[in-house]
Amino acid sequence: MEKLDEARAREERKRKAMKAKRQAQAKSAPRKAVPGEPVFVAAPPLASAELPPAQAVPAVQAKPAAKPAAKPNPAAKPKPAAPKPAAKAPDKAPAPQTPPPDLQARLKSRQEAEAEISALLDAREQRARKRLGLSFFIAVIVPTLCAAFYLAFLSTPRFLAEAKFVVRGTLELIGGESTRFSRDLSGLSGLTNNQEGHILVDHVMSQAVVERLLNKIDLYAIYHIPRRTPDSAPQQDPAIEKLMAAWRSMVHVTMDSVTGILTLDVQAYSAENAILVSQGILDESTAMVNELTARARQDRLERATKEVELARADLDNLLKQFEAFRNQQGTVDANYSGLALQGLVGLLRDQRVKLRAELATARASMGDDSASTRTLSNRLESLEKEIADIEAQIDGTASRDSVERAAVPQSLAEQEKLETQRNLVIERVSRAEASQSAALSESQRQQAFLMVFEPPFLPHIATFPQVRLDTLITFLVLFGFWCLVATYARNLRMHN
């Protein structure tokens, strides 16, 4: 653009100079030189490097200012040269007249001045072109050649290992459990894979993952960063700041917010190190994603364990009450005791029938005053009393003072109450133990994981540097900068 503008300006100056020259020649050539009438031509000063367009007109219009020795009448207006004699063809062409010597000298001096001005303009243009070419060579060509030499022979090649994966599993399984211990955690299922993906992107670029990888991989050696304190732990070395700067320039993680696909790009100075670092990042990312639910799963396990302990404590108290009840009743099972009493009453009633028959026979044969009759009568009375006591115990009408043990209905009611409580507590313990087992299984299982559908492959060609492309980019950037500076300098020079 600068060359084009300078060429246009140069052509414009030349065109104006030639126009002024033609005007001067047109005014002086048709007019016949009259002897005794001097002609003056004003030449531009030679000190100026350029001939301004406005100076060409005064050089030609300076003729009326020059007057001959004889002054004409002031009232008379100067008449222009009449073209009538030129319109008529003379019978004989006039002989050419030789201009005066002083006019020839002035014309010659004018031509020399124009030639000098043209030479000065050409020299100025040549100097401007040389300066422009020198600046282009220094500002564009030399840096481009240096960059090409560095990229081709001095720069260290970098290898890129790329992996693509998505987060699967997450927290839906925890929120979908039907136990009351997991209902409190159902709100956590609102976390989506996109949220976990954004968390993973921030985690990979953080210092935490670098410190974890330092326990497995020597990142200082991989990225050519010398350690300041080799005897200390890698995580406490002051050079870890330089390592983090290299990590942020070598490792990049991007995520597609629509599909949730994460892309991991890892660069290293060797193909094997690129694969090693990429695989280490994937392993640490899997552990980190699984740790997102570790707190909730651990809380669930602790609550299930506490519930089991409480249920077992209630069961122990109930069993102690059962034992005290059995000791008090003197029987293992009140139902069996009631059945035994009923059987005993039946046997006693059979004996009572036999005694009554024997008593009737004794009274008939020996009378009421005989010893056998009185014995049978006493036995029958005691048997009836025993039967009455047992029946009263079975019916629940006997008082606590009349019998040693409680009535059968009371024992059965107390036993049924204790058995119902025992069954409920046993069921509670069973549910708590089942919840504890499920929580333990969930805590030991990998809840969330990374599904890598495009694992990193061993690169065989270095992705950096690309000598041709990088050199072309360098040239275009420098060329654009040079164009801006050159245009600004030209405009500044024209304004000055």
From TrEMBL:
Region (Disordered) residue spans: 1-37, 54-109
Coiled coil start-end: 294-328, 373-400
UniProt signal peptide: none
Residue ranges crossing the lipid bilayer per the database entry: 132-153, 472-489
Keywords: Coiled coil, Membrane, Transmembrane, Transmembrane helix
Biased composition range(s): Low complexity: 54-74, 84-95
Compositional bias of kind Basic residues: 15-24
InterPro entries, A to Z: Bact_polysacc_biosynth/exp
Sequence ranges of Basic and acidic residues compositional bias: 1-14
Protein name: Capsular polysaccharide transport system permease protein
Species annotation: Ancylobacter oerskovii
Lineage: Bacteria, Pseudomonadati, Pseudomonadota, Alphaproteobacteria, Hyphomicrobiales
